[in-house]
């Protein structure tokens, strides 16, 4: 990866990783994996319910220009009639372990952090780190003296992403058309893109791939007579647009960014994700679909029940604090409708933050979420540190907190699935006490799973005893 602090683009370092795999309860991993097709169904059904999306955002769009612009594009494309009824989404649902008391015993459960419906990254790195850890585990006989039986699950993350893009390509039914990767101006996590490109080439050498920086696309793209998406002076037809960028308002700071997004959305190309899938990942939906009854609007009862089991509690911030009851801000996280890390406010910082927004319509952009109380596990975080020579931290005994992501892939036509897949995982580990997460944002490293038998609350002892 490149890091913003590096002097030029010729400098690279390894992505941040943990030295050892991360112990994680097997039953909770299995639960999160089983839920993924339900998460896929939920986001598909939200994406297709325009009036629900509009109602949910009705207050937010008064002050949130970014969400308003996405919604406007969604409206325009529906009004003129969708040139491409097939929609795709490669998503990742993220979870943290939560410690809670049950019958006087502390135990663990999964809590969903969020669902990422655009630019869900790290699938290839995650696979490579799982392979590296499997090797280290066998070489150093990690955990052979352990009382717990452990397993390393297969990590189908890269295959899922590749197959998702290939399925979208085949649905377009045009040989010699291109998959377009939409990228940032300066690509930090370039190898994540490159490994996907390479894996597509290995499975399907007939599929050509082209990369386009978002900032250049308005000049490069145009629509053909049947809304074909054309690039390279009309010489190449794009069948699939794979967004690895465009999820944050700052991505749209250059001239014509919104025009470029509009051309792509109006075109016949299959978008991964389409704008309505992008919108369906908004954090506001977590707050409004926060119990079984609300989930039943989009899911059958048994599926709503399964998903409801992993949901945190949420509150809106559109009024004064009265709805919080006995809950204190110290135990909450405040989130705006943003992606990509660095936007949240945690615990004690919430009150002063909201005080500044008193009587402001902007309050409605935020949601309050219960703070997840994750256990620590000892491991070593190996990351690029430009001050490494000065910082002699004891990395051999670090306490890390893990976040598990499960990948999902959808290809659909209207409300009907062509494919509804779940496979592969990402584990990100951050130092205990670090509030934000995310590898690209520099807070966490990539790890892998070491599944331990049920209710192993003392996860630490799995590797280190
Ligand atoms: P983003 O879209 O920026 O990734 P997230 O909702 O994933 O936003 O939050 C960023 C990070 O903040 C997460 O990776 C996690 O480490 C931490 N976080 C988010 N929600 C909670 C929560 N409810 N309790 C504890 N930590 C949280
Ligand atoms: Mg996140």
Could you characterize what this model shows?
This protein has helices at 26-47, 50-56, 60-63, 65-79, 123-139, 157-172, 190-203, 214-220, 257-266, 275-280, 283-288, 292-295, 301-308, 350-356, 460-464; strands at residues 17-18, 22-25, 86-102, 105-116, 150-151, 178-183, 209-213, 222-223, 229-231, 236-243, 270-272, 314-316, 332-335, 345-346, 367-370, 377-379, 381-382, 398-413, 416-431, 444-447, 449-452. It is α+β, with helices and mostly antiparallel strands and 465 residues long. Strands 3, 4, 16, 18, 19 and 20 form a six-stranded antiparallel β-sheet that branches. Strands 6, 7, 8, 9, 10 and 11 form a six-stranded mixed β-sheet that branches. A four-stranded antiparallel β-sheet has the order 12-15-13-14. A hairpin with a 4-residue loop joins β9 and β10. α8 (214-220) crosses α9. It is globular, with a radius of gyration of 22 Å. The mean pLDDT is 92. The protein binds adenosine-5'-diphosphate and magnesium ion. Magnesium ion (MG) binds at residues 94, 113-114, 437.
């Amino acid at each position: 990866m490149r890091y913003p602090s590096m002097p030029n683009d010729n400098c690279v370092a390894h992505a941040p990783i943990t030295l050892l795999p991360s112990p994680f309860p097997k039953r909770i991993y299995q639960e999160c994996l089983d839920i993924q097709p339900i998460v896929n169904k939920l986001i598909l059904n939200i994406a297709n319910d325009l009036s629900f999306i509009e109602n949910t955002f009705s207050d937010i769009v008064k002050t949130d220009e970014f969400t308003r612009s996405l919604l406007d594009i969604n409206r325009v494309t529906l009004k003129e009639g969708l040139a491409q009824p097939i929609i795709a989404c490669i998503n990742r649902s993220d979870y943290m372990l939560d410690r809670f008391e049950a019958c006087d015993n502390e135990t663990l459960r999964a809590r969903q952090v969020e669902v990422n419906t655009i630019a869900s990254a790290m699938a290839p790195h995650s696979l490579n780190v799982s392979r590296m850890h499997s090797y280290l585990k066998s070489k150093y006989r990690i955990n052979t003296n352990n009382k717990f039986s452990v397993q390393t699950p297969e990590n189908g993350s890269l295959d899922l992403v590749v197959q998702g893009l290939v399925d979208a390509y085949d649905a377009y039914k045009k040989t010699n058309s291109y998959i377009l990767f939409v990228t940032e101006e300066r690509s930090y996590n370039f190898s994540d893109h490159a490994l996907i490109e390479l894996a597509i080439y290995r499975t399907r050498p007939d599929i050509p791939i082209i990369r386009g920086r978002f900032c250049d696309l308005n000049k490069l793209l145009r629509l053909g007579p049947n809304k074909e998406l054309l690039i390279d002076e009309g010489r190449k037809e794009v069948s699939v647009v794979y967004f690895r960028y465009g999820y944050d308002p700052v991505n749209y700071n250059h001239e014509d960014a919104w025009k470029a997004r509009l051309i792509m959305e109006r075109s016949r190309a299959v978008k991964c994700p389409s704008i309505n899938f992008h919108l369906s990942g908004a954090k506001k939906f977590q707050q409004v679909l926060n119990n079984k009854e609300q989930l039943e609007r989009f899911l059958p009862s048994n599926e709503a029940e399964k998903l409801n089991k992993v949901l945190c509690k949420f509150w809106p911030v559109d009024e004064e604090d009265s709805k919080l009851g006995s809950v204190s801000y110290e135990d909450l996280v405040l989130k705006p409708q943003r992606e990509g890390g660095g936007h949240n406010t945690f615990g004690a910082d919430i009150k002063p933050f909201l005080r500044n927004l008193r009587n402001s319509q902007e309050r409605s952009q935020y949601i309050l979420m219960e703070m997840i109380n994750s256990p620590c596990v000892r491991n070593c975080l190996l990351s690029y540190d430009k001050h490494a020579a000065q910082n002699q931290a004891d990395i051999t005994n670090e306490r890390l907190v893990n976040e598990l992501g499960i990948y999902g892939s959808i290809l659909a036509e209207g409300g009907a699935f062509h494919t509804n897949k779940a496979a592969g995982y990402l584990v990100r580990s951050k130092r205990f006490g670090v509030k934000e997460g995310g590898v690209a944002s520099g807070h966490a490293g990539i790890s892998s799973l070491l599944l331990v038998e049920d209710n192993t609350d003392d996860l630490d002892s799995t590797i280190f005893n």
